Amino acid sequence: MNLAEIYASIGPAGCVLLLVGCAGLYIALRTFFYMMLVWRHFQRDFLEVRNQGERCLRNLNSDNPLIVIVRDIVGTHASHSDDIRAEVGYLFHRNFESVSKSLCWLRLISVVSPLLGLLGTVLGMVGVFQTISQNAAPDAVMLAAGIWEALITTIMGLCVAIPMLTFYYFLLLKFKSFHIEAVEHSYRALELCQGPEARAARARKGGLAHV
């Protein structure tokens, strides 16, 4: 089947859906593998290891986005702030801007795909009615072609929207877990860099706050 036959079978809306579906699959897979690599390298390059009973950080000079966030937090908050969640949120958005955009595109594709399928359905039915109006005794094959286009685009729209929406929420949960990990490891890195005296002072401060 050549391109002309495919176009005749699914119509313009179906062709757009094919392109949108391929783009969505590419975005979803690229984002998934990127996040998996970021997490694997984070676990490898940023570890709390024990050396003769002492904890330490390893390879804070990595360009891994999660490590970059922790490094910036340590550099800007190690001496003057205990509240780092807002700063982590800003740095997280800045370092994971590409992932945020990818998630927005996936969400958009999942919303637009059913609408494109509906558009294809309308166009197919318009073709059917045009065939009926132009022929006193329309051929069943001609009518079937329009009905086929109307039905296949609806199916294609749903087949694109459902996986894209699933990918979106799956990756969104991963993305939120990255944010939680960034906050948690930023606190740990601050504690390690500030030393035992600062940790003891923070503990005393917390104890006074509960009195």
Question: Could you name the key traits of this structure?
Answer:
2 strands, 83% helix, 211 residues
Structure characterization notes:
By secondary structure, this protein is mainly α. Helices cover 83% and strands 3% of the residues. A two-stranded antiparallel sheet has the order 1-2. The longest helix has 71 residues, at 140-210. The N and C termini lie far apart (78 Å).
The biggest beta sheet is recorded as: 2 strands, antiparallel
Number of strands: 2
Low-confidence stretches: 205-211
**What fraction strand?**
under 5%
Write the element-wise H/E pattern from the N-terminal end onward.
HEEHHHH
Give Rg in angstroms.
27 Å
Mean of residue pLDDT?
Answer: 80
Distance between the termini: 78 Å
Class based on secondary structure composition and strand pairing: mainly alpha
Shape: rod-shaped
Portion of residues within helices:
over 70%
Number of helices: 5
Strand order, largest beta sheet: 1-2
Short summary of the structure?
Helix content is 83%, strand content 3%. It has five helices and two strands.
Topology:
Elements: H1 3-45, E1 49-51, E2 54-56, H2 65-77, H3 85-95, H4 97-134, H5 140-210
Antiparallel strand pairs: 1-2
